[in-house]
Amino acid sequence: MVVLNKIYTRGGDKGETALGNGDRVAKYSLRVAAYGTSDELNSVIGVARLHSEGDMDAALMRIQNDLFDLGADLCRPDMTKDAEAEYPPLRMIDAQVDRLEVEIDAMNANLAPLRSFVLPGGSALAAHLHVCRTVARRAERLAVELSGVEEVNVSAIRYLNRLSDWFFVASRVANDNGAADVLWVPGANR
């Protein structure tokens, strides 16, 4: 159980922060950037949820919870020491990726195939979901970059990759199942 009774600790006043295993690193470290961007994504989803309801809102809430799991995973380096930890570290699992795939397929089943790229926009919810998509892509790029220098849970990277796809398809659903998509017209303004 997490207890947060004091919000500031002064521990980061010199530009360092603690990882999930207690190690201290620079706040600009690649690992902090990766899980910080997943936190940013979570906040952007919170704004998108102001425009969602029903099944879409419930799915976005599940994703927000998953992103806390993802942050817990990414803030905990050295997976080889998981068995030695006092508390088992929370790691992303393939079932979370699988759930996104099932949801993507279900949403996509009701959409007409695209014949052009989609410009971000349309409804307010769709526009916000496009912002979510791009932040998810940035979080993925940072996690992949981190995996080039440190061990990263492969399921975490797969989740981020699938999540940006989820946001794209969800944005089309939010645009009247694609009927209100804003399509790119190549060279339209030449």
Beta strand count = 4
CATH architecture: Up-down Bundle
Biggest sheet: strand arrangement: 1-2
Oligomeric state of this protein: single chain
Q: Please, what is the CATH homologous superfamily?
A: Cobalamin adenosyltransferase-like
| CATH fold assignment | Hypothetical Protein Ta1238, Chain: A
Tell me the Rg in angstroms.
18 Å
Biggest pleated-sheet summary = 2 strands, antiparallel
> Helical stretch count?
5
Helix content: 40-55%
| Shape designation | elongated
Low-confidence runs (pLDDT<50, min 5 residues)?
A: none
Order of helices and strands: EEHHHEHHE
Arithmetic mean pLDDT: 93
Pathway: Cofactor biosynthesis; adenosylcobalamin biosynthesis; adenosylcobalamin from cob(II)yrinate a,c-diamide: step 2/7
EC number: 2.5.1.17
Organism: Donghicola tyrosinivorans
Family: Belongs to the Cob(I)alamin adenosyltransferase family.
Molecular structure report:
This protein has helices at 30-48, 54-74, 94-108, 124-147, 154-174; strands at 16-18, 24-26, 118-119, 182-183. A hairpin with a 5-residue loop joins β1 (16-18) and β2. The strands form two sheets. The chain has a two-stranded antiparallel sheet with strand order 1-2. A two-stranded antiparallel ribbon has the order 3-4. The protein has a single domain (29-183), classed as Up-down Bundle (Hypothetical Protein Ta1238, Chain: A), CATH 1.20.1200. With 190 residues, the protein is mostly helical. It has five helices and four strands. The protein is 53% helix and 5% strand. It is elongated and about 55 Å long.
